[in-house]
């Protein structure tokens, strides 16, 4: 969609930010430090789920704005509500959250697109089960971020993009390094939301979600492949193809924020861990003298 197969020099250096719901407070802190240091050597960007919203804030050039959303909005009780979910409503109310972000002017949309750099948002097509990479623009930004962030089941129903039902981008491609390479990226920084010891497993929650999605067989088939897909992308990070360099940045083992953490101090600590990790990430990026060098903290 919208140029996702276009290859040119505008994609030579790329920043990818994984999602992870509230774990993405790590990438929020990291990107805020990048802004502080005026570090943005990237030609283009791909964001997934909450990683896409963090990239939007980064591209707007307004540090610390999204931490307000995490603390004041996410923790308000209106965004995550277990009782509402048990009664058949959303566990995560993205409609309310995005309306509040818009009404409070927490996101400077014109500033995001004041540069000539491509910003893609990964989403999952419900009918095909395949990943799509939508080039964001001022008109579609909030809708594609909502689609990319709408976790199956936890957000009831599906959001629509161009009249087609879509869901969380992490379902089909949580770490879209292969797409970056297809676009022509030679130097890639990927920001992850799990520590370097993390190994994805198939839990009872995942099995239950697949059962609830059983009327969408191709989507379920994609969900069944997530563990193997994650193994494959981690292998790709460690062994990129010739001519490609990858810097992987991930939280340390003591990073304690979970997907639905609602403790303010834990979120602030997670944000600070990301902020403090940024200097080392910048240093590793600057060691890339040629595309044949690969460095990772994994």
Structure commentary:
This protein has 298 residues and is an alpha/beta fold. Helix content is 42%, strand content 14%. Helix 13 links the parallel strand 8 (245-249) and strand 9. The longest helix has 23 residues, at 264-286. It starts with 12 loop residues before the first strand and ends with a strand.
What is the general shape? globular
Report how far apart the termini are: 32 Å
The number of distinct β-strands equals 9
Main sheet attributes: strand count, strand direction, barrel closure? 9 strands, mixed
By DSSP (H or I, 4+ residues per run), the number of helices equals 13
Structural class: alpha/beta
The fraction of residues in strands falls at: 5-15%
State mean pLDDT (0 to 100 scale): 90
Q: In sequence order, what are the helices and strands, one letter per element?
A: EHEHHHHHEEHEEHHEHHHEHE
- Taking all Cα atoms into account, the compactness measure Rg is 18 Å
Helix content: 40-55%
Contiguous low-pLDDT stretches (5 residues minimum) are: 1-7, 290-294
List keywords for this structure.
disordered N terminus, 9-stranded mixed beta sheet, 298 residues, alpha/beta, 13 helices, single chain
């Amino acid at each position: 969609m919208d140029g996702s197969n276009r290859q040119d020099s505008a994609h030579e250096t790329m920043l990818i930010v994984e999602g992870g719901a509230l774990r993405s407070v790590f990438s929020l802190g990291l990107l805020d430090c990048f802004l502080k240091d005026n570090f943005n050597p990237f030609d283009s960007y791909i964001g997934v789920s909450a990683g896409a919203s963090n990239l939007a804030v980064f591209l707007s050039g307004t540090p610390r704005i999204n931490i307000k959303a995490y603390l004041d909005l996410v923790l308000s009780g209106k965004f995550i509500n277990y009782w509402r979910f048990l009664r058949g409503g959303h566990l995560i109310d993205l409609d309310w959250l995005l309306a509040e972000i818009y009404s409070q002017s927490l996101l400077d949309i014109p500033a995001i697109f004041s540069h000539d750099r491509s910003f893609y948002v990964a989403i999952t097509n419900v009918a095909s089960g395949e990943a799509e990479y939508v080039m964001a623009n001022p008109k579609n930004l909030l809708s594609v971020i909502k689609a990319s962030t709408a976790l199956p089941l936890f957000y009831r129903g599906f959001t629509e993009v161009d009249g087609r039902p879509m869901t969380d981008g992490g379902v089909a491609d949580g770490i879209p390094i292969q797409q970056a390479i297809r676009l022509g990226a030679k130097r890639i920084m990927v920001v992850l939301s799990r520590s370097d010891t993390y190994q994805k497993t198939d839990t009872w929650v995942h099995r239950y979600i697949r059962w609830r999605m059983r009327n969408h067989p191709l989507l379920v088939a994609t969900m069944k492949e997530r563990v193997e897909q994650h193994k494959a992308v981690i292998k790709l990070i460690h062994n990129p193809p010739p001519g490609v360099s990858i810097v992987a940045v991930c939280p340390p083992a003591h990073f304690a924020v979970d997907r639905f953490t609602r403790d303010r101090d834990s979120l602030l600590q997670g944000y600070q861990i990301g902020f403090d990790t940024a200097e080392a990430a910048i240093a590793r990026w600057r060691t890339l003298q040629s595309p044949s060098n690969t460095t990772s903290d994994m």
